[in-house]
Design goal:
By secondary structure, the protein is α+β, with helices and mostly antiparallel strands. The protein has two domains: 97 residues, Arc Repressor Mutant, subunit A, CATH 1.10.10; 54 residues, Ferric-uptake regulator, C-terminal dimerisarion domain (Dna Ligase, domain 1), CATH 3.30.1490. Helices cover 39% and strands 13% of the residues. It contains six helices and five strands. The strands form two sheets. Strands 4-3-5 form a three-stranded mixed β-sheet, with no helix packed on it. Strands 1-2 form a two-stranded antiparallel ribbon. The chain is globular, with a radius of gyration of 17 Å. The two termini are 20 Å apart.
Length: 161
């Protein structure tokens, strides 16, 4: 996954991927829950990875806390989504991919060859969204769109797919 600095260099927005322990604790306390080390580690893994499946989060968390199981990862991701800290999208036929909810909305560009995930400004789809709304009454959720194709690094070589 690209780092924030690499994203900035390619013209993509850089997001602050840190949530303070105190703000997470406050959100949890407001719901009658407590901050656990596992919850903090799971949220931090999502923020650090940028876009990650539960399995990728599990791998990252296990590097620090080997005893955290995949069920805990799924349950905590669901909780963090209910708290509005993360959101998910489906970038393939497999597990959902989570990312920070505080990020600006973006369209996902998924390379079918190498699996790289890039982002683009959803306003580029505004004309299409407006046309769908006026012609069909369909309201496009621009922030929840993924395009699949071949990234620039993989090129146009059809034999590589």
């Amino acid at each position: 996954m690209p780092s924030g600095r690499a994203a900035e260099q390619r013209g993509r927005p850089h997001y602050d991927r840190r949530v303070s322990e105190s703000s997470l604790a406050e959100l949890l306390r407001a719901r009658g829950l407590r901050l656990t080390a596992q919850r903090q580690l799971i949220l931090q893994a999502v923020l650090d990875l940028g876009h990650a499946t539960p399995e990728q989060v599990h791998t990252a968390v296990r590097e620090v806390a080997a005893g955290v199981n995949i069920t805990t990862i799924y349950r905590t991701l669901e909780l963090l989504e209910r708290l509005g800290l993360v959101t998910h999208t489906h970038l393939s036929h497999g597990s959902p991919t989570y990312h920070a909810a505080g990020e600006d909305q973006h369209v996902h560009l998924v390379c079918r060859v190498c699996g790289a995930i890039d982002e683009m400004d959803p306003e580029l789809l505004r004309p299409l969204a407006d046309q769908l709304a006026s012609e069909r009454g369909f309201r496009l959720d621009i922030g929840h769109v993924s395009f699949f194709g071949r990234c620039g690094r993989c090129g146009d070589d059809e034999d590589r797919s």
